[in-house]
Design a protein that fits this description.
The chain is an all-beta fold. Helix content is 3%, strand content 45%. It has a domain of 141 residues. β52 and β53 form a beta hairpin. It is elongated.
Length: 479
């Protein structure tokens, strides 16, 4: 066997992919550049445009650095890039493509560590494995402060980054990862960790479609001056662009002053498998709906909220406001200060099925007195509702022709079920050991059958408004 060192000019380099050009290893090696060979990072990036640039030294950046199309910027080792420029540190030019930023350690008071213009048009961008801290704009008063700020982009991967204490400086800015003026399409935001006590949002996506926010951890976020913001994940529809077909899944969102997840006028959103805890710690539920998970807007439709775990919200567990065709199913909600699930405002075709709600401060499920149609509340389990005030397990007020069926309500500080209108279908509910009657309210033309009540202490009675009580319907039973 020969020990002769191979000649790199003779060894073929065969890249993957059909139609790829075969070169030599020597040619490929010549496409790798090192920042230590250049006086500053910008000169290194200019020289390496379209190739791989290895950052192998620490550097203070005093002017905006531009990353040209086709560049792969990668850091090896614990070198630190300190941003001393007040606005943008690393800039992605308009209509750029095929840019990778990998493993950078960035610190400093720039307003945005990595940014594009608002009408960028950039595509095929990857920002991964970076550690970004302290981008608040300092004393510059520059707005849109963020760790990563991109706009009007397509096919972007933001993965496995750590972003800490980026966000609002002198002005109310944004936060960790922000996609602003759209359309923003085919975004992949996953595995990031975002922590901040100054940012207004952890992950904010405006005018976004066909995208996913999966497996991120978001902690902190503060409210703004108008009882808004403080969101862990924000999905917001901008005028002129459709926010549609997005997935928010398997994220852990905690200690936010506003809602953990807040969706405004977005269609066909899937919200599943998220853990939201200690959310809405400051934001009230008066002007804007506030909850561990909150969706809001008359243009919302086709949304599924499934299999999430929401706990210790300072307001509601889940709020559905002003929407249509929403399914809220299989969620676990516990120890929220207001209602477990709040159906707020005018709604159409809302299904609340198979949720488990424990120890809510007020009602387990609350349908307020705004008009609603097509509401089904089926197969939910509610225990110990009304921990902070006397409240029923389920209260239905504004829904015309609501179906309330197969639910279990036990241990409420009020009635098991309270209704305030006619024309309900109330069947096969189990109402046990609640503090007052099993069913309370007015339901002269409602259909009621197959419900089960606890005997004794008026548990097996049903009361009309005005205090008139009578025993259950002949098809109901006392157990």
């Amino acid at each position: 066997m020969s020990n002769t060192k191979p000649d790199s000019s003779q060894v073929k380099f065969i890249p993957a992919g059909a139609g790829a050009v075969v070169t030599t290893v020597q040619t490929e090696l010549r496409k790798t550049f090192y920042s230590s060979n250049y006086p500053n990072l910008q000169s290194a990036l200019t020289a390496s445009a379209g190739n791989l640039l290895i950052i192998d030294k620490s550097e203070t950046v005093s002017e905006q650095v531009t990353i040209l199309a086709g560049t792969h910027l990668q850091q090896l080792g614990a070198f630190v890039i300190t941003l001393a420029v007040p606005d943008v540190g690393f800039f992605i030019p308009d209509n750029s493509s095929n840019i990778t930023i990998d493993g950078l350690i960035i610190t400093g008071l720039s307003s945005r560590a990595i940014s594009s213009n608002q009408m960028s048009g950039a595509s095929n961008i990857r920002i991964q494995n970076c550690h970004i801290t302290g981008c608040t704009g300092g004393s510059s008063g520059v707005d849109y402060t963020s760790g990563i700020f991109l706009s009007n982009v397509n096919n972007v991967w933001i993965t496995n980054n750590i972003i800490k204490d980026c966000g609002a400086g002198l002005l109310e800015g944004f936060g960790g990862i922000v996609f602003y003026v759209g359309p923003n399409t085919f975004l992949h935001i996953s595995g990031n960790r975002i922590e901040s006590s100054v940012a207004l949002q952890g992950i904010a996506c405006f005018a976004t479609a066909y995208s996913e926010i999966i497996g991120n951890t978001v902690t902190g976020m503060k409210t703004g001056s108008g009882n808004n913001n403080g969101y862990g994940v924000l999905l917001y529809d901008n005028a002129g662009y459709i926010t549609n077909q997005n997935t928010i899944a398997n994220n852990i969102i905690s200690s936010t002053e506003g809602s953990g997840i807040y969706i405004v006028d977005a269609n066909n959103t899937t919200i599943t498998g998220n853990v939201c805890k200690f959310n809405s710690l400051v934001q009230s539920d008066i002007t804007l709906p506030s909850a561990g998970i909150s969706i809001n807007g008359p243009n919302i439709s086709g949304t599924a909220i499934t299999g999430n775990c929401v706990s210790y919200s300072g307001q509601n567990g889940i709020t559905i406001a002003g929407a249509s065709t929403v399914s809220c199913s299989g969620n676990s909600i516990n120890n929220c200060s207001q209602h477990g699930i709040h159906l707020r405002g005018g709604l159409n075709e809302i299904t609340v099925v198979g949720n488990s709600i424990l120890s809510s401060g007020k009602r387990g499920i609350f349908d307020d007195d705004n008009p609603k149609r097509g509401v089904s509340i089926v197969g939910n389990s509610l225990y110990n509702s009304g921990q902070l005030e006397s409240a029923p397990g389920i209260e239905v007020n504004g829904s015309v022709g609501a179906c309330v069926s197969g639910n279990v309500s036990s241990g409420a500080s009020g009635a098991g079920l309270q209704v305030a209108d006619d024309n309900y279908l109330i069947t096969n509910n189990v109402l046990l050991d609640n503090s007052v009657v099993g069913i309370a309210g007015s339901y002269i033309t409602s259909v009621r059958r197959g419900n089960k009540f606890t005997s004794g202490a008026s548990q097996g009675q049903v009361s009309l408004v005005g205090g008139v009580g009578y025993s259950p319907h002949y098809r109901d039973t006392i157990v």
